[in-house]
Amino acid sequence: MEVYWAIFIILSSLSLLENIIKKNNQLYIILFIILIFISGFRYNVGGDWSTYQNYFNFSNNISLKDFYQNLNFISHDIGYLFLNYISNKLSLTIIGVNLIAALIFCYGLFKYCLLFERKYLALLISFPYLYLVVSMGYSRQSIAIGLTLLAIEKLSKDKENWFLSILLISFLFHKSSIILLLAYFISMLFSRTFFENNKIRIIFSF
After folding, report:
1. N or C: where does the chain have the smaller number of CB atoms within 10 Å of the terminal CB?
2. Which residues are CB-contacts of 36 (< 8 A; sequence separation ≥ 6)?
3. Cβ contacts of residue 145 below 8 Å, gap of 6+?
């Protein structure tokens, strides 16, 4: 608990000193690495830990052919199951799955926060729920959200093909991503700047 409070205090301080340290990219990268390690190396943390352990055990001692034969696209998140399968075969344990999930989530979040003039304030706002609750407790959702935030970052730079591709990949990890895809096509009927004008709302839409 002390670690979480320490990070919260650090983010609060950085947000207050934003104008002074705005160009210090090394500090941003260090913070990125720290958050990956904290979330990635957690063990028996989160309300769905036993569920994710079952996902990992499912991929143990089965062949790739058996793995795909047991898949159901409707009821399973194929991307997350495949991630567990690869981690299992490489003997990385469930920590390997969590590290990759933390890397994807933090990369998407940190890229997304760069869209704001005050990136540390954006991180501070995201920290209590998106990091402490989602990243530390819900691996599938965290990967999907990380990819979704990265997709939005690409869309803000008019890279629509990247946006759609990344969003489709996120759907393989959690089907809630389809909501944003539908919102995108609906928004195109009204305004192409919908996502640019609604950054704050989108970050909490999951």
Report:
1. N
2. 99, 102, 103, 106
3. 105, 108, 109, 130, 134, 170, 206
Asked if residues 134 and 142 have their Cβ atoms less than 8 Å apart, the reply is yes
Cα end-to-end distance, the chain, whole Å? 25
Which residue intervals of 114-158 are DSSP H helices?
119-126, 136-137, 139-155
* Cβ neighbours of residue 133 closer than 8 Å, sequence gap 6 or more: none
Q: What is the number of other CB atoms lying within 10 angstroms of the CB of residue 144? A: 31
* pLDDT tens digit sequence for 111-123: 999 999 899 999 9
Angle at 100 between CA 12 and CA 148, to 5 degrees: 65
Degrees (nearest 5) of the Cα angle 185, 190, 192? 70
pLDDT tens digits along 167-204: 889 988 888 777 777 777 777 776 655 555 555 445 44
In the block, tokens 């002074």 appear at 20
Which amino acid does the sequence have at 192? R
- Give the residue from 33, 173, 184 showing the smallest Cα distance to 110: 33
